């Protein structure tokens, strides 16, 4: 029997030891959850006190999910500074405690232990560099950096002066970077010379130079000389951040900001069009980030918290930076990848820094699982107390491997469901409170009211078990506030289809015990190695190639990545398909979007299945990609049903 089969369907209760020391046990969860939904106003008024407010709030919740009138405000008359909450207020008691442990790409590289005192000085100096470049409250700043301490300094420096940061994952291409700079009208880009990752280097500065060719020439370019690699330098535009940090003052006042002032914009993929700028607030977001980091991971003083995500994603924002630092935690930042120099790297880091909570994605677990059990077996993992996952449902086989080889059958695994849009965990076990079932994100976090809706009618499915789409009935403080520059798109994406609810875009099932099981996206978003990708984005990159007439992209099950990218491509008249062209198109998508968007399989499609009105029937394409011909459904409404036979006959062999 496979290990996965042994754990599937079972329930794993928290150990007595875990429960005894935990912030929240089962009784406390029930009590707090009831309070949070029965009287959100009182509950969140109390939770807001986690932060230091300059001007305390008198109003707590002012939210409407009414389509046409959607407005989300929390703590709206309070003022605070996010950086001061993450740094300054800890100085009295923890100035010498490590705030950030930096583990470099090379295992023998220089580890840094950055204390709260040092963090304060670095962030102040960085903030003064920004001010010297004319960056002011409300200005947008793009951060395109590797996973280095300067990424944290840059984000917190923006927060300190009230500038709005937008971090762009360092794996994105110049075009993707340029689109984001232009969409938010950024005044500056902060980048580095090159980014070492897994022993290779990405030329971030030259990518930025390429991107800036498509942007206003007023955009400043702030460069962190990280590796010292040679780059071109444009005098008058480029600024050497590290050199300048030495010359500016070591202190910089934290600017009072309104709770509803945007803290950051983060671009994420949707089912249509270009990525949208998800806007998060200062006050509500930070309350929610701090609270979820503490409870979901049962974080205690003295713990060493490691979220293995990249700061380019929301997981990195909330659980490398803002949540842990708001709580005065020690948080680990890793520059590299799990498999460099070999597949023991994660486990060696846990041993080396005595990590207590470890948070990663199922795709990373599956990749490491493929390398065998020797790698973790060689390392001392006894410091660990809680394991977490995020990004997609964890399959029983990966759960069993994680549990057995990393948790030694002893540790709670928190499977956290949430989204860029939600700011923090929404459905998740709490380690001392919630019995877990492998594959289920279990129960809602405080203040979160999930509902299961019938996909077609939008009717609420009452009782258990239930199946449908997942929506949320009321607001929580970490919720996104709008789409940058396009509030209408915010409303139409999340509030139009099911009136009165926030629609997640995910399908789900609720079992007899009220546990939630996320079944994946119900829209045209796919989840590749835990990265969210709009199929429309990949399609528009493909059709931008001169030899491509049309393209349709769908996801298909992939053993390691969760989903792979399957592209059906119709070539221009007269263009011959070839393996060379296939490679050319792969390379093309890499440069248009980035390596993460490269199609795994490209099938030449002389025609695509379309309705008579010209709409591509993705349902059919998905089935073919999944190898599921039995259920192609009714193809008689197609303009030309014979194209389906051709596609089935020539389906790519996944090998
Ligand atoms: C998926 C990442 C199942 C889901 C924080 C969601 C999950 C999308 C889980 C958001 C989970 C995330 N179980 N599915 N524990 N966590 N997802 O915006 O489809 O990058 O809608 O945020 O990832 O991805 P995003």
From TrEMBL:
Its EC number is 6.2.1.1. The modification N6-acetyllysine is found at residue 615. Acetylated. Deacetylation by the SIR2-homolog deacetylase activates the enzyme. CDD domains: ACS. Keywords: Acetylation, ATP-binding, Ligase, Magnesium, Metal-binding, Nucleotide-binding. SUPFAM superfamilies: Acetyl-CoA synthetase-like (SSF56801). Residues 29-86 form the Acetyl-coenzyme A synthetase N-terminal domain. Mg(2+) binds at residues 543, 545, 548. It comes from the Bacteria. Residues 88-473 form the AMP-dependent synthetase/ligase domain. Gene3D superfamilies: 3.30.300.30, N-terminal domain of ligase-like. Catalyzes the conversion of acetate into acetyl-CoA (AcCoA), an essential intermediate at the junction of anabolic and catabolic pathways. AcsA undergoes a two-step reaction. In the first half reaction, AcsA combines acetate with ATP to form acetyl-adenylate (AcAMP) intermediate. In the second half reaction, it can then transfer the acetyl group from AcAMP to the sulfhydryl group of CoA, forming the product AcCoA. Belongs to the ATP-dependent AMP-binding enzyme family. This is Acetyl-coenzyme A synthetase. The gene is acs.
């Amino acid at each position: 029997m496979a290990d996965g089969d042994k754990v599937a369907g079972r329930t794993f209760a928290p150990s007595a030891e875990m429960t005894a020391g935990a912030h929240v046990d089962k009784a406390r969860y029930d009590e707090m959850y009831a309070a949070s939904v029965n009287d959100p106003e009182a509950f969140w008024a109390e939770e807001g006190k986690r932060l230091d407010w300059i001007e305390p709030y008198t109003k707590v919740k002012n939210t409407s999910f009414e389509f046409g009138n959607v407005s989300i405000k929390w703590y709206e008359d309070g003022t605070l500074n996010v950086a001061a909450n993450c740094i300054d207020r800890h100085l009295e008691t923890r100035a010498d405690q490590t705030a950030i442990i930096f583990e470099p790409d090379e295992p023998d590289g220089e580890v840094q232990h950055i204390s709260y005192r040092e963090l304060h000085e670095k962030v102040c100096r960085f903030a003064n560099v920004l001010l010297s470049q004319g960056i002011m409250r409300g200005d947008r700043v793009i951060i395109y950096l590797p996973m280095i301490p300067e990424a944290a300094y840059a984000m917190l420096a923006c927060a300190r002066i009230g500038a709005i940061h937008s971090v762009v994952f360092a794996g994105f291409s110049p075009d993707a970077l340029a689109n984001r700079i232009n969409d938010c009208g950024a005044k500056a880009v902060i980048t580095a010379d090159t980014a070492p990752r897994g022993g290779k280097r990405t030329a971030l500065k030259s990518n930025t130079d390429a991107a800036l060719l498509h942007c206003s020439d007023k955009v400043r370019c702030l460069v962190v000389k990280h590796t010292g690699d040679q780059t071109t330098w444009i005098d008058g535009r480029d600024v050497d951040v590290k050199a300048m940090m030495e010359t500016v003052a070591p202190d910089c006042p934290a600017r009072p900001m309104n709770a509803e002032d945007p803290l950051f914009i983060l671009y994420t993929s949707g089912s249509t069009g270009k990525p949208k700028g998800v806007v998060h607030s200062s006050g509500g977001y930070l309350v929610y980030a701090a609270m979820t980091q503490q409870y979901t991971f049962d974080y205690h003083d003295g713990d060493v918290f490691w979220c293995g995500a990249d700061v380019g994603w929301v997981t990195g924002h909330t659980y490398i930076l803002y949540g842990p630092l708001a709580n005065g935690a020690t948080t680990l930042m890793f520059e590299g990848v799990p498999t460099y120099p070999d597949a023991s790297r994660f486990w060696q880091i846990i041993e080396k820094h005595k990590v207590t909570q470890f948070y990663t994605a199922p795709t990373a677990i599956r990749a490491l699982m493929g390398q065998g059990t020797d790698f973790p077996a060689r390392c001392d993992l006894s410091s660990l107390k809680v394991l977490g996952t995020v990004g997609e449902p964890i399959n029983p086989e990966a759960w069993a491997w994680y549990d057995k080889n990393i948790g030694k059958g002893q540790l709670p695994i928190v499977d956290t469901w949430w989204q860029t849009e939600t700011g923090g965990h929404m459905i998740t076990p709490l380690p001392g409170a919630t019995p877990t079932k492998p594959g289920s994100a279990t129960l809602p976090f405080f203040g979160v009211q999930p509902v299961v809706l019938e996909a077609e009618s939008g009717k609420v499915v009452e009782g258990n078990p239930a199946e449908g789409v997942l929506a949320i009935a009321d607001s929580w403080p970490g919720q996104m506030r709008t789409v940058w520059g396009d509030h209408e798109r915010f409303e139409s994406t999340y509030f139009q289809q099911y009136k009165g609810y926030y629609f997640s875009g995910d399908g789900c099932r609720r079992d007899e015990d009220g546990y939630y099981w996320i079944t994946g996206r119900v829209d045209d978003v796919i989840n590749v190695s835990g990265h969210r990708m709009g199929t429309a984005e990949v399609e528009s990159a493909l059709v931008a190639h001169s030899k491509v007439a049309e393209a349709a992209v769908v996801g298909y099950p992939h053993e390691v990545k969760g989903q792979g990218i399957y592209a059906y491509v119709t070539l221009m008249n007269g263009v011959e398909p070839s393996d060379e062209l296939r490679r050319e198109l792969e390379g093309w998508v890499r440069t248009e979007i980035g390596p993460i968007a490269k199609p795994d399989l490209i099938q030449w499609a002389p025609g695509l299945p379309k309705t008579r009105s010209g709409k591509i029937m993705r349902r059919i394409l998905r089935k073919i990609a999944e190898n599921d011909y039995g259920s192609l459904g009714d193809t008689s409404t197609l303009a030309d049903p014979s194209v389906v036979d051709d596609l089935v006959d020539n389906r790519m062999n996944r090998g």
